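$ ./design --mode recover --in tokens.txt
reading tokens...
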């Protein structure tokens, strides 16, 4: 696995997270990261010329390539992924970069007002992209520089329309290293759509209401894997400890609680929005069971003790 990131006269050691991965051919950055760094460094230099301390907002930095490239500047890092947070911490530390100027934010936290520079890696989920752009539109100013890059194959008319709806006039650059920049100009007074999240929808044949934040899989119906599990859940006894791993919106846990309310449940996911959705789903359907449920953001079960569950 290539761990040496060279870009714009920078040399950084970047590793994917978790460190012990079976596929060592994958690296911790892509060409979109390189494009963003190439534009961000000159912009940062210009912002610091006047002796100011620019406020930098970075969204969806998968393994910390963007954060590390911008050094010890004041950064606000927005992640929905717990794994991405751990990767960024690790890579900053192994490159001798401090965490003192870093403010970690989850996908559910409010964004800082009036950022000078925003770096956005395109998320795969367009609903989550709209959520992030709506949040950005509330804090950006005419002086905010928004830098966006993604694989060329992921940029199309519908995607650019989302940027136009929430930020303002938007175009895409020519392809460079199989990636493209997205140039979006903030437009004050733009009539922006109101997002419905968190959404609520009925789970067929159960009477349950599921609650979903924007970046949660299966936002309006159960996926094929969930449907299979719903038909093959174990019979749970009172007092047993159950772990709902990759809990999403908590669909499986609701079914467990329906058959046995006297069990102990741990609902865990690496997505902050997923765990928040699961908590809301349990509160909506089994409010009296909240005390026996734990909701934990985790990298698989890395924070859990051995032999701590009867069923996973």
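writing sequence...
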């Amino acid at each position: 696995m290539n761990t040496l990131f060279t870009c714009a006269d920078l040399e950084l050691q970047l590793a994917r997270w978790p460190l012990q991965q079976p596929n060592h051919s994958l690296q911790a950055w892509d060409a979109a990261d390189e494009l963003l760094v190439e534009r961000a460094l000159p912009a940062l230099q210009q912002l610091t010329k006047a002796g100011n301390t620019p406020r930098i907002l970075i969204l969806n930095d998968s393994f910390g390539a963007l954060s590390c490239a911008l050094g010890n500047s004041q950064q606000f890092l927005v992640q929905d992924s717990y794994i991405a947070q751990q990767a960024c911490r690790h890579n900053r530390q192994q490159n001798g970069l401090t965490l003192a100027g870093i403010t970690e934010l989850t996908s559910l936290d409010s964004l800082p007002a009036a950022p000078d520079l925003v770096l956005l890696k395109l998320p795969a989920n367009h609903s989550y992209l709209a959520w992030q752009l709506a949040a950005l539109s509330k804090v950006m100013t005419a002086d905010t520089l928004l830098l966006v890059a993604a694989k060329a194959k992921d940029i199309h008319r519908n995607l650019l329309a989302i940027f136009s709806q929430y930020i303002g006039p938007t175009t895409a650059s020519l392809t460079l290293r199989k990636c493209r920049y997205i140039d979006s100009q903030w437009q004050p007074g733009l009539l922006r759509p109101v997002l419905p999240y968190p959404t609520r929808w009925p789970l067929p044949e159960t009477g349950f209401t599921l609650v979903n934040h924007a970046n949660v899989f299966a936002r309006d119906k159960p996926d094929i894997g969930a449907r299979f599990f719903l038909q093959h859940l174990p019979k749970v006894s009172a007092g047993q400890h159950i772990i709902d791993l990759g809990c999403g919106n908590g669909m499986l846990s609701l079914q467990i609680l329906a058959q046995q309310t006297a069990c102990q449940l741990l609902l865990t996911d690496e997505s902050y929005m997923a765990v928040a959705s699961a908590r809301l789903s349990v509160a909506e359907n089994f409010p009296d069971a909240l005390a026996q449920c734990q909701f934990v953001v985790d990298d698989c079960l890395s924070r859990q003790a051995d032999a701590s569950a009867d069923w996973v």
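exit 0
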